[in-house]
Amino acid sequence: MTVEELGVHLKDHWPEIRSRLLGGTYAPQPVRRVEIPKASGGVRLLGVPTVLDRFIQQAVMQVLQEDWDPGFSDASYGFRPGRSTHQAVARAGADLRGLRGGSWSGSPKFSTGSITSSYRVGSQACG
């Protein structure tokens, strides 16, 4: 099923889907495995859920996030609405610069969604 077909599918099958969700008998379909070629050679495996399963995942996440998000630390940036990797790096840099007696050296490197950096905190900041 495509994203464009989801609306019609939900209109036709929502009572049954809802019943299985509320009854605890809904089981997501296996994800489709896709190989993404890497520039350096090899492949990265990606699991793609069905359109219906992804729709249900998103709906559940929106409901749960409303209750859970306020409990997360203000310093938490991973997979949170309105927060980005760039904001996390900026926050980390500001926090490290704020340490008294500490020093920080690093070069954040953005590469395929990961950040690598090195830093050193002086003994005065740790003690």
The low-confidence parts are 110-127
Helix-residue proportion:
40-55%
- The pLDDT mean sits at 80
Count the domains: 2
Overall 3D form: flat
Strand count, sense and barrel status of the largest sheet are: 2 strands, antiparallel
Order of helices and strands: HEEHHEEH
End-to-end CA span: 59 Å
Count of β-strands: 4
Key words describing this protein structure:
127 residues, alpha+beta, 2 domains, two-stranded antiparallel ribbon, two-stranded antiparallel sheet, 4 strands, disordered C terminus
Short description:
The protein is an alpha+beta fold.
Fold and architecture overview:
The protein is α+β, with helices and mostly antiparallel strands and 127 residues long. The chain has two domains: 3-71, no CATH class; 85-126, no CATH class. It has helices at residues 3-23, 51-68, 85-97, 123-126, and strands spanning 32-37, 43-48, 109-111, 114-116. A two-stranded antiparallel ribbon has the order 1-2. The longest helix is centred in the N-terminal third of the chain and has 21 residues, at 3-23. The N and C termini lie far apart (59 Å). The model is unreliable at 110-127 (pLDDT under 50).
